Structures are given as structure tokens and as C-alpha cells.
Amino acid sequence: MKPARFQYHRPTQLREALEMVATLENYKILAGGQSLMPMMNFRFVMPDHIIDLNQVKELTGIDQDQDRLVIGAMTRQHHIHRSDLVAKLCPLVPEAYDQVSHRQIRNRGTLGGSLCHLDPASEQPCFTSALDGEIEVQSLKGQRTISIHDWTQMYMTPALDSGEVLTRISLRPWGPSHGWSFMEYARRHGDYAIVGVAVLVALGANQKIERLSVSLCGVSAAPVRLTALETSLLGEVGDDRILPAVNEHIEAIEEIMHDSYNSATYRRHLAQTLTARALGVALKRALRNH
């Protein structure tokens, strides 16, 4: 199919883009376009205006700002995947990108676009949650920062107010001695995950768990951060005795998504299995780096 008629706008400065989103009605922002264009072709969305941010250079780049890794919203997924700085500070991220679609998609797709599209099975909100991401948005009225944990308002709906544009994302690195793992199960490589899990772990004295982060995708509209599990495992030795705690806390998730292909029971089982496996890999890496 073909998209409905629309007007195309291509700002070259952030200020120009902000003026457009403040004045135009029924618009969609074009970031990578890898999700938006198919939705327009099927007429799932029919905007009157397309605002293409691909020429706004202010929204691209990867940098370190004190204790945060900062990524411009329009930075290509491929550039993040292959960045030496990202691999050094947040090795969880390139491991997650190994599972994200295919290179042709990553060449055009952007991190900001994925976080605004907010597919529940997407790997990118999941690793952003695990790394306590903060999302910066701007409008003509000013700038504000939103925690990734407050970013999802409802299914595929981010916490963007009218007239706002996502400008950059910052992640919190864990330091050189931590362990990490991203695992998922999908029908085919490159498909969205049925369930995915991001795990970060740091060890303290006697090789006991000192810090832990576990985030799931594919089970709810937003990434599910297992904070109760993280707290319960602090001070524990990373061996098979922690597996019952993993199963117990995932069993306690009240509502898990289901569809015509995958039941909630199946997704819960995948979450338990993948979390246990990812935690094991992360612990081995933490022991090696400890």
C-alpha cells in the first residue's frame, strides 16, 4: 500500500524543529523511519505532516559526560553498536545490539526513534532500563529529563508532551569490574524478542553480589525492572542457590502480555529461564573482572 497524503518538512536546526512541532498539527517525527514508514504504508498512522530530523546534526553523537554515557537521539544504531566508547563503558549495549534486527535496519534506525516507538519487545528500552537511562526532551518552553522508568505512559506511548522532541539519552556505566549479559529468545534472528533480559552485576568482598540490575522486555508495555529480585540477592554468592529466588520473583509479576502466538505462561517460563542463564553469564564475567 501507499501512505496517505502528507506534507514533508526537513529542518536543519533543533530550534527550527521545535518551532514545527509547536505549530503543526497531526505530525509525526521521522527519525530512522524503520517502523514509521511501514506503519504509514499500511495506513496504521496517517499524519498530515512528517518532520524529518535526519539533517539536525545537534541530535547525533556519542560522548562521556562525567559519570554518564551520552548518546544523541538521532545517533544510528549501527554507530552505537560499533562504538569503542560504548563497548568500553557499557558493554551490555553492543551485546544487546547483536540481537537488534539486521545491519541494514541498524544502519538507518536510531536509539531515539526506538525509544519513542516503544515496542514492548524492543531490546533498546530494555538495556536503557537496566542502565538507569535518563531521557532528555526539549520544547520551546525549555528542557526536562525523564527517567526511563517513567518513560512509558501506556502501550507504545512515551511520556512526551505536545511540542516536545527527544534530544539525547544518558546511561550510567558500571565500571570495569562488573559483569553483564543480554539474552533473548525470538522466532528468527533479527525478529523482536518474545522475551529478552538484560543483567548487570558487581561483586564485593568474598565474591558476593554487591550490586545487581535485571530488566525484562517482551512481558509488559514497559521494560520490567526486577528491583525486588535485585535487593533480595544482595550479599548472596552467585551459585545455583539463587535460582529459586529468580523463579519466585518472576512468578510474582502479576500481568504478563500474551498474544495469539505466545501465552503469558510461556513468556513467564522464558523470562525465568533466560534470567537464570543471563545471570550466570554475568556472574562469570564479574568473577573474571573482579
Short synopsis of the structure:
This protein has 290 residues and is α+β, with helices and mostly antiparallel strands. It is built from 11 helices and 14 strands. Helices cover 33% and strands 24% of the residues.
Shape, principal axes of CA atoms: globular
Low-confidence stretches: none
Number of distinct beta strands: 14
Largest sheet: 5 strands, antiparallel
Count helical runs: 11
Structural class: alpha+beta
CATH architecture of the largest domain: 2-Layer Sandwich
Radius of gyration: 19 Å
Domain module count? 3
Per CATH, what is the topology of the largest domain? Uridine Diphospho-n-acetylenolpyruvylglucosamine Reductase, domain 3
Cα-to-Cα separation, first versus last residue: 55 Å
User: Roughly what is the average pLDDT, rounded to an integer?
Assistant: 95
**Elements, N to C (H/E):** EHEHEEEHHHHHHEEEEEEEEEHHH
**CATH top level assignment of the largest domain:** Alpha Beta
Strand order of the largest sheet: 4-5-10-6-7
